[in-house]
Specification:
- The complex is a heterodimer of chains A (about 160) and B (about 160).
- Chain A is about 50% helix and about 30% strand.
- Chain A is an alpha+beta fold.
- Chain A has one domain.
- A five-stranded mixed beta sheet of chain A has the order 3-6-7-4-5. In chain A, strands 1-2 form a two-stranded antiparallel ribbon.
- Chain A starts with a helix and ends with a strand.
- Chain B folds into two domains: about 1-35; about 40-160, no CATH class.
- Chain B contains four helices and six strands.
- The longest helix of chain B is centred in the N-terminal third of the chain and has 31 residues, at about 1-30.
- Chain B starts with a helix and ends with a strand.
- The chains are: A alpha+beta (about 160), B alpha+beta (about 160).
- Chains A and B meet through helix 1, strand 6 and strand 7 of A and helix 1, helix 2 and helix 4 of B.
Chain lengths: ~160, ~160
């Protein structure tokens, strides 16, 4: 009788061990899935934030090409761009850079001309790189560059690198 | 007594099957889940395609300071009567579009397919390779040549 009870107890213990083993395995799998899903969400949010920075840069009123209050889409005035770029890169204008930090955060925004190819127009509009960052998300988009002196529109590219902490 | 024990064992078996099924469903759901981030990439590609077409059409060329839109209109209407450095407007605009595509989408390693439809002379202008099975973001930009006659520029960017 005693032996039968011992076997019964071992059987119960065996069932419990297997049950907890399965429970731990399931929980480990679940948490792994959640972790991977969370990382994907973070990555998605970072990409959205990077895209927002590009959109904000494309619609900066400081750089628009407007004529008699009519704004041309997707266009930067080269002259305005050169001035804003030199102003933001001047260390004396740190307060100015802080104002733009609220818009662009930690990013590097550069604009360069690709057509006509014989012109080497290239400017860094804004550059604020953190000391530590986990990833860089790069986005490029075509833009028009208006040459006020020659009254012509050139084809350029805005390149935005957003640094994720 | 024996009957009750059998019932208990069957109940245990049912619970195990239910638990295993829930686990399997969970695993299948995880494996079938589409990779996230594609939606963001799709929005980005769509914006790039739209910006490319808009920007390209307004870009001024060296051919009598005409923009690409005007050269395409000339090509569609006259078959390329304007002489641009010894080339017809059709050949010249085709070369310039190729330069733009090579310096942007090709450089960024994006697969694309650019076509123009609506007139026989502009239909010869196409770049990239068409991929029918690929995920794509397409943008179509109509250009009015004259009232009732328009051509369509289409840019597909493959994901």
């Amino acid at each position: 009788m005693k032996r039968k009870a011992q076997i019964k107890m071992f059987e119960t213990m065996g069932v419990l061990v297997i049950f907890f083993f399965l429970l731990v395995g399931g929980a480990a799998f679940y948490f792994q899935v959640q972790k991977s899903s969370l990382q994907q969400d973070i990555r998605k949010q970072e990409q959205l934030a990077a895209f927002q920075v590009v959109q904000k840069a494309l619609f900066l009123p400081e750089l628009d090409c407007s004529f008699v209050s009519i704004q041309k889409d997707n266009c930067f005035d080269k002259f305005k761009l050169m001035n804003l770029s030199s102003y933001l890169s001047d260390p004396e204008n740190e307060d100015f850079l802080i104002d733009y930090f609220n818009i662009f955060g930690f990013s590097d925004i550069s604009i360069y001309q690709v057509y006509p190819v014989n012109n080497s127009f290239s400017y860094t509009l804004y550059k604020n790189i953190p000391k530590d960052y986990s990833s860089i998300i790069s986005t490029q988009s075509p833009v028009l560059l208006f040459d006020t002196i020659n009254k012509r529109y050139d084809f350029g590219v805005i390149e935005v690198d957003v640094y994720a902490e | 007594m024996q009957n009750k024990k059998s019932q208990m064992e069957i109940m245990g078996l049912v619970i195990i099957i239910i638990l295993v099924s829930i686990g399997m469903l969970f695993a299948i759901q995880f494996l079938m889940k589409k990779p996230t981030g594609r939606e963001t990439a799709a929005v980005k590609e769509s914006t790039v395609a739209a910006n490319f077409l808009n920007t390209m059409l307004s870009t001024t060329t060296d051919c009598y300071k005409r923009n690409m839109k005007e050269l395409l209109q000339d090509c569609a209407l006259t078959g390329g009567s304007t002489n641009c450095f010894g080339l017809s407007s059709c050949d010249y605009v085709s070369d310039q579009i190729e330069i733009l595509l090579n310096n942007t989408l090709a450089k960024w390693k994006k697969d694309y397919y650019f076509t123009i439809s609506g007139a026989p002379d502009v239909e010869k202008i196409s770049f990239g390779n068409e991929c029918l099975d690929c995920e794509r973001e397409a943008k179509i930009q109509p250009v009015v040549v004259r009232p009732g006659f328009e051509i369509e520029l289409r840019l597909d960017i493959y994901g």
